[in-house]
Every structure is written in structure tokens, then in C-alpha cells.
Amino acid sequence: MTQAAPKPKVIVFDVNETLLDLDTMRSSIGKTLNGNEDLTALWFSTMLHHSLVTTVTGDYQDFGKIGVAALMMVAQNEGIKITQEQAVTAIKTPLLSLPAHPDVKPALSALKTLGYKVVSLTNSSNAGVKTQFANAGLTEYFDERMSIEDIKVYKPDLRAYEWALKKLGVKPEEALMVAAHGWDIAGAKAAGMQTAFIARPGKALYPLAPKPDYLVKDLNELVAILK
Q1: From what superkingdom does this record's organism come (predicted)?
Q2: 29: in domain
Q3: Predicted local confidence at residue 185, as pLDDT
Q4: Which of 6, 25, 122, 220 has the smallest number of CB atoms closer than 10 Å to its CB?
């Protein structure tokens, strides 16, 4: 924890890596990339990078399609030949079947018991996050699911957070954005939201952005603060 902040009216969760464990995709990505499981992180960062390209250029593409394109780019850069069909097989089904991190369900249950409104805001499609939550057993914990697909502007563009806040009917300072990505924390903070960074393994804050209101190792630690 870095500093105290007013109790939020609504808690907004990022999904991929914050709630869902992307590490399980290492085997499918690695199998497609000649056993190079360590390229999974590069694939995900390439996908995020090009989601911003679509936002800046105004050429919206579905997050899953960007994921497939990103894998083909990584393969090409590594001198590995794969087909689009192989890329789709490696990504789509595994991405929709990610398990929740061990701390997620107990923490979400506790937040609901404490009376917090719990929602999600993701770069995944509406259909995608619905399937992800169903497969991970998270549907019951959320009051609302929000996808940037509705406005076709990817996080961390400020418009994504502003749209979500308007949809929720709350002021920026009344909402807490919870994420395991420094870029998501930076975007939400710039939009005026409270922020909580979950320090999942391998994740770091962006040093040039304002610090989050909360810096915790997992969601259980955040729950203890919000009690």
C-alpha cells in the first residue's frame, strides 16, 4: 500500500492477467513457436501494442484477431513459419479458457460481502469476456461486465475509462481501477480514478506515471485494505 484513499463506490477490474492466469497459454504458444514458451510474454505485449495502433489509426479490430496477428508477427521475427490457422488454434480456445488466479474468487467473494459494486473493464470482446468468466467460474461475482468493443477504443486511451465511468454513473474519484498492468494503471490514474496495482509475477509499474493509490502483492491484500 502506498497511501490511503477514500473508499470507492465501485471497483473496476481489468481481466487478463489481473484476474485470469495467462501463464497457462505458455504451452499452446510454445508448441506453435517450436517450443519457445518464453515468447508468450512477447506475444502478449505485441498484441497490446497493436491494439493501440488500431486505436490511434481508427481502424478497430477485435482483440482476438489482433492476438492472432501478433503471434504471426512474433513467429516471423523469430524465423518460424506458421499458418493463420495454427495461430488461431494456439490462441482462441486457450485464451477463452484461462483459469482465475488462486486469490481471485476468495477476494471477489469478500468484496461482495462487504457491499462493493464489482465490475470489469476489458479490452476483450463482450462475447469473449462472457465466455472467459463462465469458464473461470467468475460470472456470479460481477454486477456488470464492460468491454471497449462498445466504443472501439482500447485501454489505456482515456476515452475508455471516461466511457466506463459515464456508464457506471460515478465520478472518477469514486471508482477504483484494479489492474496488474502499469499501462492500465497509468491510463486510469490520468482519467482521475483511484488505482490499485496488483504486483503479479513479472509485472511492473510504468516509472514515469503517477504512483497508484494502492500497491499490493495480491487481491487478498487489497481486500484487507478496503475493509
Answers
A1: Bacteria
A2: yes
A3: 98
A4: 6
